[in-house]
Amino acid sequence: MCSLTEKDRPIVQLLLNTGTCPRCILRFCCVGSQALYRCPYKDLMNDLKEFLKNNQEKEDMVCFDVVDPPCKRIRLEHTEEGPDELNHNGALQQIPSVNENTAMENSAVKVCNVCLGILQEFCEADFVKKVCQKVNSADYQFTSFVFSVSLPPQLSVRERAAWLLVKQEMGKLGLPLAKDDVVQLKEAYKWIIHPQLSEELGVPADGKSLFEVSVVFAHPETEEECRFLATACPDCFKPAKNKQSVFTRMAVIKALEKIKEEDFLKHFPWPPSSPKNLCVALEIQCNNGAVFVAGRYNKYSRNLPQTPWIIDGERKLESSVEELISEHLMAEFKADSFNFSSSGREDVDVRTLGNGRPFAIELVNPRRIHFTAEDMKGLQQTINNSSDKIQVRDLQLVTREAIGRMKEGEEEKTKTYSALIWTDKAIQKEDIAFLDDIKELKLDQKTPLRVLHRRPLAVRCRIIHTMRSEYIDEHHFRLHLKTQAGTYIKEFVHGDFGRTKPNIGSLLNRTADILELDVESVDVDWPPAL
């Protein structure tokens, strides 16, 4: 049950006469009943006509009985435009007084001069089915949906003009009308469309859903209606990257907030004539929120980069850790793209052993999202069977928030390495034994020459917590190190032309170089072991 009061009568009569649809009239009468907007269009029109016929002055309220039958398709009839002019002061033209019969004659179904048909044709069952067919053909997995709509920016201009007209009419009755009192077009549209989409798709509408169904509307016939704002408020319209037009909805709204009412009325009189054409649905799109997969990887090859190695557009190696893992995830989740991250990285010639290095992959717009623990176990096995260069473990679904734990306190974490070292001068076991006794050795590491092209020049303080040497022969020994994360191990061995101090060469008083390096452990307790 929803009511219109006697004060609404002149508003209903005025808007009907100027070509406004019943649902927009309810919006400007500040009617907040969702069920009423869902009534069939013809029923609403008839109810408004009955409301205007009611001349019982003693009765100060007329009620609509609200029923909620399925919407019926309404054939929209195009009508000729009727231009209106401002008076010489630029004020709103006085709308000729009309009786109820005149209003009803002019209220034949036509494209609404406020919503441009959004609350007419695009609320009907045929359009809802069209949207749902698009959703179903995209083959997404989802248990709920959120519906979003993008409206033509000129709708905000027409909305402003209608509000000024109604506010003026309310002022004659000594009543105020704030912009926020009017039911927003998007809100009314969602009240109508949500139940229909929900019934057709078989899942509930949920504002927090990760599955989004979006519709982009346009109305080419009235696109020029925003242009006067660029002259009145040039600061609001600045070219932006990836924007085809400066007349974005946000820019138009900003300009409308800035422009004075009298200036607005000089350029945009009310009522504008009803357009000949409806809005068009330019795009109907679906998008699933990202899914995040985490695990740990081992790398057994000394000829495999972590991420694709491309220099000046030329690929140096055929694959990478990232690609060997992600190609299977992309195929199973049917995602559009992915983003790979990890707890640190190793060089192309460095192996990662032990429990492996934590990693996470964001899968963008996945079609498939429902995976059991057994599914993930099978996917892990598929990855491991596909290559002898890597292996993954503890593969699991995680939340976006959980990925932050991988990066938390990253530089405070420790990593363990094994380095095969060569020296130019012969060594004996006794010559390297003292390294085992060194604890918490502080290094000053200037950005290595090999990464200077992608890292800022700086001196970083790093700590070698412990070392353990393992003698091999007169020119070779293996050094096991536990270090602060972020330490450049290769530079600690050869010194990088004095950019890392102290270094193994300076400690042994001879030239040293590194032949092999392995990461033996990354001490980040994430993701949880399975």
Automatic annotation (TrEMBL):
InterPro entries reported in the protein's UniProt record: PsdUridine_synth_cat_dom_sf, Pus10-like, Pus10-like_C, Pus10_N_euk
Matching Pfam families: Pus10_C (PF21238), Pus10_N_euk (PF21237)
One function term, GO molecular function aspect: RNA binding
An annotated GO cellular component: nucleus
Single GO biological process annotation from the record: tRNA pseudouridine synthesis
EC number: 5.4.99.25
SUPFAM superfamilies, sorted: Pseudouridine synthase
NCBIfam families hit by this protein: pseudo_Pus10arc
Name this protein carries in UniProt: tRNA pseudouridine synthase Pus10
Species for this entry: Alca torda (Razorbill)
